[in-house]
Amino acid sequence: MSITQIDPAYTTAMREVRPTPAADGQVRLKPATARGRQVPRWIRRTIGPVTLVLIWHAASVTGVLPSEVLAGPATVLSSATRLVESGELQDAVVVSMRRAMSGLLIGGSIGVALAVLSGLTRLGEDLIDAPMQMLRTVPNVALIPLLIIWFGIGEAPKIALIALATAFPLYLNVYAGIRGVDQSLIEAGRTLGLGRVGLVRNVILPGALPNALVGLRYSLGIAWLALVFGEQINATAGVGYLMANAREFFQTDVIVVCLVVYALLGLAVDLVVRSLERIFLSWRPSFTGT
Question: What region holds the ABC transmembrane type-1 domain (predicted)?
């Protein structure tokens, strides 16, 4: 009895296989379904944004979307070119990046340190976790008046607001990553003679790394959100300062330019974190989609 008689699905699958010549002259089999995967992914990922811009342009040209409500893509591009030529946009981006990264560094360091203490020891959990769970439910925007009273109206309250906003996502994810390490791995490490420090360094922290990188991505996104609010506190420079000035003069084109800058900055830092995931998590095979 042949295999086709045993499993009719085998015959169907073999019909969908096409022979393809290899470089060494041998004929190799290639699934027919692979032919639909020839379009580069970066092209497919740009289809959505390009479609939105085309719809936006069509609505602006036809008058469906008046310029008083929202400037068209051509006007926005012209305003962006003018801001770049004058150097205003570059200076604003540098100032905003410095604020966001400073706040993330401070808040992230505090969040990770507290998560490690809380995750590794029950005493740390009892002392740290309850206050952190209470504080994370307080809206960060509601703390702006207190931050102004404590730190004045300079750079300190802006950075402090970003630090507060970014500390909690990292704390929650690192803590969950530590407590989510498989107990059997801990027992295996002890069987191999690893002490407490060895377990933490070789088992627990590597196991918590995927969650930590997810928390970093969340914190980076929240950092830009907090930056928008922070730059409304008597700012004299930054992307938020450009938006505030444009709001006063109803310049929707400049506002859209600033929003696009925020989005591109967020996309750039997210790509950096994705690259870190590929580097540090290369040992962990994961599902990448079909």
Answer: 93-273
